[in-house]
Design a protein that fits this description.
Elements (H helix, E strand, L loop, with lengths): L2 H13 L37 E4 L7 E5 L10 H11 L3 E4 L15 H14 L5 E5 L2 H13 L3 H6 L2 E4 L2 E4 L3 H6 L1 H4 L13 E6 L10 H7 L3 E6 L6 H4 L1 H12 L1
Parallel strand pairs: 2-3, 2-4, 7-8
Antiparallel strand pairs: 1-3, 5-6
Helix pairs in contact: 3-4
GO cellular component, one term: mitochondrion
InterPro entries: AB_hydrolase_1 (IPR000073), AB_hydrolase_fold (IPR029058)
Enzyme class: hydrolase
């Protein structure tokens, strides 16, 4: 999914509202989420927001696995993978809704610094430091920034964010914030520090998001980075090839 396609999806989601007319979608509970004021303007520290999460229990002796979804996604994207890895590894597994996504709080600030700050607030609260961060796309960039700081079908996907309220369908996504910060979401903040811990970058063989031309900068920031390609997978590696994805993760953890 490239920038033009993402902009088209944003236009589609804004235009797609429908009164309840027996459309075959199951009802979901929905509560109006608080809007957090922007606090990262003028160089001030981003203010963390309340994140919705699901934690699967496991052995506390091993670092937990923390899954971070991509743009337009939610913690439910990793349900199958999270449950399977929790059973197979015995580790605690956390899935999280990013700000402005799923059931997490909304905020006009959609910077990677803010998303990283959210996790810096949540993970210690849950006793999950240290942990293994596993991020897809936007979630991968968030994991990259958090690690650096600590060393200091598309429509079906979108419809998971559609809920019925008072006879009308509304979006749980904060579309205005996502559209306003789309250029930042598709980019990555310039950083000078490095992260010396082991890191796995997993890409789909059919995806154009992570390219060999990106490898030198990745290895500058993450000197111990491993690059691995999953054949016959697109951008959504964990969805296209879940068994290969989980095998790669387990091999990395071994």
């Amino acid at each position: 999914v490239r920038a033009g396609q993402i902009l088209e999806m944003l236009r589609w989601t804004r235009a797609w509202t429908a009164p309840y007319r027996g459309i075959g979608l199951s009802n979901s509970s929905f509560s109006r989420l608080p809007i957090a004021p922007s606090s990262s303007q003028g160089g001030t520290e981003p203010r963390p927001v309340r994140l919705s999460y699901k934690l699967l229990d496991g052995e506390a002796a091993s670092p937990a696995l923390v899954f971070l979804h991509g743009l337009f996604g939610s913690k439910t994207n990793f349900n199958f993978v999270a449950k399977t890895l929790a059973q197979q590894t015995g580790r605690r597994v956390l899935t999280v809704d990013a700000r402005n996504h799923g059931e997490s709080s909304h905020s006009p600030d959609m910077s990677y610094e803010a998303m990283s700050k959210d996790l810096q607030d949540l993970l210690p609260h849950l006793g999950l430091v240290p942990c293994v961060l596993i991020g897809h796309s936007m979630g991968g960039r968030t994991a990259m920034l958090l690690a650096l700081q600590r060393s200091a079908s598309i429509r079906q996907l979108l419809l998971t964010n559609l809920v019925e309220v008072d006879g009308r369908f509304v979006w749980r996504l904060n579309l205005d914030a996502l559209a306003q910060h789309l250029d930042k979401i598709l980019d990555f903040p310039a950083r000078q520090e490095t992260y010396s811990g082991p890191t796995l970058f997993l890409r789909g063989g059919n995806s154009q998001f992570l390219l060999p031309s990106h490898y030198p900068e990745i290895r500058r920031l993450f000197p111990r980075a491993q690059m691995q390609t999953v054949p016959n997978a697109g951008h959504w590696v964990h969805s296209d090839r879940p068994q290969d994805f989980m095998a790669a993760v387990q091999s990395f953890l071994a």
